[in-house]
What does this fold into?
Amino acid sequence: MAEYDYDFFVIGGGSGGVRAARLAAAMGKRVGIAEEYRYGGTCVIRGCVPKKLFVYASHFSEAFEDAAGYGWTVADSHFDWPTLIRNKDREIARLEGLYKTGLSNAGAEIFESRAELVDNHSIRILDSNTVVTADKILIAAGGRPNHVEGLEGHELAITSNEAFDLPRLPKAILIAGGGYIAVEFANIFHGLGVETTLIYRGAEILKNFDMDMRRPLHQAMEAKGIRILCEDVIDRIVRSADDRLDVTTSGGRNLKVDEAMLAIGRIPNTENLGLEKAGVQLDEAGAIVVDPYMRTSCENIYAVGDITDRVQLTPVAIHEAMCVVETAFRDNPTSPDHDLIATAVFSQPEIGTVGLSEDVAANRFERLEIYRAEFRPMKHTLSGRQEKTIMKLVVNAADRKVIGAHILGPDAGEMAQILAITLKAGCSKDDFDRTMAVHPTAAEELVTMYQPSYRIENGKRVD
Ligand code: NDP
It folds into this structure.
């Protein structure tokens, strides 16, 4: 292996790339890693982490309202966007520093530069225009927001990248998309006092989630004052004389806003990486094709995370990276398990989910039992807020296994993480029933729904 400069070279300093580089370096491998923007990648720099900080910020407006029922008088509140941005930036810089320290402490060599493949063992470091060689290579260059080049006026729109650093908080925003990012940012901006409209091409937001999460969340968002336009898309964006944006939709609507944000999916960063020179195969969507061990069509080159466009979630990229290190350096071929991945949508109320939705399960299994509870969370008895919590378990009647768990309500994401363990362990509804409740909590409903709310047989609901 001595003929190469490195045992392992990683392109991309996001969650997946950094984890693989750090683990391999800690094993004594000679590791190099290159990142063209900032270490930490999408998740830390302009994704999950700043998003969650914004979510916390946006919660306060309702918390101030809710306080009154508990006897508090909250003085006139005022939100200052530059303060949030400044404090968020400080935290992100701290985390970026930790990522780099972790890498250098493990012994990895850090390049702050774009890197591209020259062939399957050589990498060009663009800033210094040098070429280094490596025995094994990992591509973890992530993805970027889809900007819809064909949309008239798309250059006037922002994406989540810019939303984290807007110089001014808009008075009114239009957000396009019905997925994670669109729904989360609609709630964030609304909570910060922005007049918010969501426009989505489908009939109901959050395709692929359980309908008992989708519809009630839609209703709850509208009840707060978020305008949701379904079955419509942006047709044209024009800068108006008053320096705002005039947006026309295919459905004939005209909206005037300060910002239009596109949150319509992300695309893998595979362009100009030299992948074709190394013989790395892409699929029709431009994502790197990998086998179950994250190996590309080029045997010494691996890929993990968003650039493979399979499951675009940070913990998945990290897990895949750990599998690559096992496979490549510990002689222990390890394949990531993508089954039963729990996720959360940090909307208000929040969604936490793991396993199959009722609709998908009904197509797959002959008989289901559905356990469903809808109630006003205890906190809102005094706050006066009308929002409901919904909890739902989808159970395969044949073996009593819980195959789906869905929660809409405060802390749903936290609950989904724990529920994921029970589903992964193959727990049955009887295991849930035998479990003593924690009282008084919302989560106790999960173990006290003794009778099915209804049954599904051969795809049809029977009460
Ligand atoms: P999603 O895939 O979640 O949603 C994309 C949305 O855009 C869908 O509603 C889709 O519609 C719509 N869409 C796609 N193309 C067009 C188009 N040409 N015109 C109009 N609408 C369109 O992607 P996001 O961008 O929201 O997020 C990217 C990924 O990041 C997510 O898939 C998720 O994995 C990850 N993420 C996870 C978060 C979390 O875990 N909390 C938070 C944020 C992001 P349709 O439904 O009809 O296909």
Q: What stands out?
A: The two ends are 66 Å apart (CA to CA). The first strand starts at residue 6 and ends at 11. Residues 148, 176-182, 184, 200-202, 207, 233, 263-266, 312-313, 343-346 surround NDP (CB under 6 Å). Residues 154-264 form a domain with the FAD/NAD(P)-binding domain fold (CATH 3.50.50.60).
